[in-house]
Amino acid sequence: MALDPDGYPVTRTPAGVRRGAAAARDLAVLDDRVSGCRACPRLVGWREEVAVTKRASFRDEEYWGRPVPGLGPADARIAVVGLAPAAHGGNRTGRVFTGDRSGDWIFAALWRAGLANQPTSMARDDGLELTDVRVAAAVRCAPPANAPTPEERDACSPWLARELALLPRLRVVVVLGGFGWTALWPVLAEAGYAIPRPRPAFGHGVEVTLTGPRGPLTLLGSYHVSQQNTFTGRLTEPMLDAVLTRATELAAG
């Protein structure tokens, strides 16, 4: 596999994503392969344009401008799956949900749940450490208008599938928003989990337990921590805390 100038393995096609993800032996290898992905031309063009034009308030910063890998330990029993990196959040900092208001919400909630050592996530070197939880996105590149296409979602899905497979103790997935909820079903079906028919509809607080090759796996739905939801009160801190409390209870059980 060819390397880019920064030493990340380059993947240029959806077929290459499938091969590269399947061959990743651990999360560190997977994260490097995610970081070098160039399989979706529209997303590559947008994320790199944003990294050059920048937001005025960040004009002196060097943007990451790449796909954003997941964050958290390999022994995590809980996974949190969001939509995609923000153009001036994860696409700038290089860490999922880091440096934007959505990240302010999710990491503060993880801290209140005892899953993070601090309530903020501002930069990759800020000392944040997660315990028993892995945070990732269904699509790894910042999309225009925060809206990946179904084709981009499907091209990216092997990265998420392999990430979940590399969490041997995984028991709970907290899904932030309807996009992630939809993206997760084919990933879990391919992993051998029995998927209900019809598929359960997304909703805040929805709980679905699946049977599969590694035992039961519970999906918990939560409204996304987007500003549209948090500013309007559609999602409140107590609502998010309740979902994460339930996740920690299930993981412990």
TrEMBL record:
Q: Which UniProt keywords apply?
A: 4Fe-4S, DNA damage, DNA repair, Hydrolase, Iron, Iron-sulfur, Metal-binding
Q: Which GO terms describe its biological process?
A: base-excision repair
Q: Name one GO molecular function term.
A: metal ion binding
Please give the SMART domains that the UniProt record associates with this protein: UDG, UreE_C
Q: Which Pfam families match?
A: UDG
InterPro entries under this entry?
UDG_Type-4/5, UdgB-like, Uracil-DNA_glycosylase-like, Uracil-DNA_glycosylase-like_sf
Q: Where is the Uracil-DNA glycosylase-like domain?
A: 69-244
Name the protein family.
Belongs to the uracil-DNA glycosylase (UDG) superfamily. Type 5 (UDGb) family.
Q: What PANTHER family does the annotation carry?
A: TYPE-5 URACIL-DNA GLYCOSYLASE
UniProt name for this protein: Type-5 uracil-DNA glycosylase
